[in-house]
Amino acid sequence: MIRINLLPFRLARKKENIRRQVSVFFLSLIFIFLALGWALSMLNNKISLIQNEAAQVRAESLMYKKKADKVTQIKKNLAILEEKLAIVENLKKRKNEQQILLEELAQRLVETKMWLLSVAADAQTVSLKGIAFDNPTIAAFMRNLESSQLFGTVDLKLSKTKEFNNNLRLKEFEISCTKRLSEPAPDETDKGGKSTKREK
User: Fold this and answer.
1) Tell me, what CATH number does 159's domain have?
2) d(CA 148, CA 189)
């Protein structure tokens, strides 16, 4: 009977299997490293792209912030300018009102018999202080004021005799008038209380 020793064949086959497994293992490692390298490269590219986008967004945000700051400053300057213009318009309006008031008072005076010492006005009232020859002159002046469309109620606050040089006795008076909103009409009473029409 012939005996065949299969041990060397088995050892060779076993070595071949081990060699194949080692080769597969190293090939797998190489593939894994290549895959990791590719993944890291893609990740780095994404990180770089995101960083670039973030830098661009920061730059745009800074640019918009500067523009917003400029717009805010422009709005502040416009607000200051509007306030100044409002003050100028108010001053012009008050100047015109004062001019109209003084012109109206000048036309309501009783000529050669009285004169005003002071005129004080606010938004609603006008206070007058002056000197007149006598009480009838003060009464005529008050009637002239009442006939004006600039004034409403006319009240005599004070009337007293005041002695001047050479024993001259005159009447010192204080009158308070309320203002009307409407402007004076063309037809008004003249200084002596008679109706007349202003010349343009």
Assistant:
1) 3.30.1360
2) 7
- Report how far residue 200's alpha carbon sits from residue 197's, in angstroms, rounded to the nearest whole number: 9
Strand partners, 159: 173
Whether residues 129 and 82 share a domain: the answer is no
Structure tokens at 91: 């001053």
Query: Over the stretch 4-19, which tens digit does the pLDDT of each residue have?
Result: 555 666 777 777 788 8
How many separate domains does the chain show?
A: 2
Q: Residue 124 corresponds to which amino acid? A: Q
Q: What is the pLDDT of residues 155-171, one digit of tens each?
A: 999 999 988 887 889 99
pLDDT for the residue 158: 92
Q: What is the domain range of residue 96?
A: 8-108
Detail the DSSP E strand segments found in 42-150.
Answer: 114-121, 125-132
